[in-house]
Amino acid sequence: PSTESWANPLNPHDALLDQRQADGRIGGTYANAQSTAEAIFGLTERPLFFLGRAQRSLRALTWLNERQNADGSWSFFGSPDPGATCDAVLAFASAGFDPHTVSATGSPSSAMDYLSSVAPTYVTESAKSAGKLALAVEAAGADAHDFGGVNIVHVLTNTWYSPTVGAFVNVGDSWDQAFAILGLAAAGETVPVSATQTLRGMQDPGDGSWVDAWGFSKPDSTGLALQALIAAGVAPADPAIARGIAFLH
Fold it and tell me: Pick from 242, 126, 243, 128: which is nearest to 182 by CA?
């Protein structure tokens, strides 16, 4: 606090700084490791539960869980959406939570229950849909070869991948290529070399970015493409990776 009511004669923040010693300790005459550590907490001017990635992630996931629908899904533009649900599953899994146990308060349906129910139709929407589902399923510890009665890997390799074209349909969308590659890699499958080459070839030779099918979302598309290329075995020192990272910077 920096208001007048806290100044006596210094506000708490300035008072802590006034206790600094020449060697870096904070705490006046009897400054030690404990007083210095506790002074640092105060100098952040933030509640202790904000300190640390785990605590911040937990608060964000709590907020996210409060917006989960009774059927286990999350919505996009007001309607239950498999893609948004996959995003949430990836977020919970990355923080160490089992998505099979994540459900709305009072509901028996988990995020994975919802994805299992929509899997047969969602995988038919696009290569990126099938790839994103495979990625979420594997992140949750399930098997993309057998989920919701669907072999997602088979759909990716036999429905969406074209050996003739050397790419996943739609060829003009980097998200189709990237998510399909990420899904196959997550499922432990070999990524077709031609698919990797196709994604590399979609990089803007000027600024090093990737775009989506409409020519937008450059940062999103670039980050996604970089992850997919790395998952496909492209070396981090590869020029395409370096140009993509330079664009994000």
Answer: 128
Judge contact between 180 and 174, C-beta under 8 A: no
How many Å apart are CA 13 and CA 22, to the nearest integer? Answer: 18
Q: What are 207's two structure tokens? A: 């600024």
Residue 241 identity: I
Residue 33 tokens read as 């490791």
Per the listing, tokens 């009897």 go with 30
Q: Residue 195: helix, strand or coil by DSSP?
A: helix
- The model's pTM: 0.81
Paired strand residues for 167: 162
The pairing of beta strand 161-162 with beta strand 79-81: unpaired
> How does DSSP assign 17-80, residue by residue?
HTTB-TTS-BSGGG--HHHHHHHHHHHTTS-GGGSSHHHHHHHHHHHHHTT--TTS-EEETTEE
How does pLDDT run across 111-156, given as a tens digit for each residue? 999 999 999 999 999 999 999 999 999 999 999 999 999 999 999 9
Q: What is the pLDDT of residues 40-67, one digit of tens each?
A: 988 887 777 666 788 888 889 999 999 9
Return the closest-CA partner of residue 113 out of 98, 103, 128, 105: 103
d(CA 228, CA 97) in angstroms, rounded, equals 24
pLDDT recorded at residue 4: 63
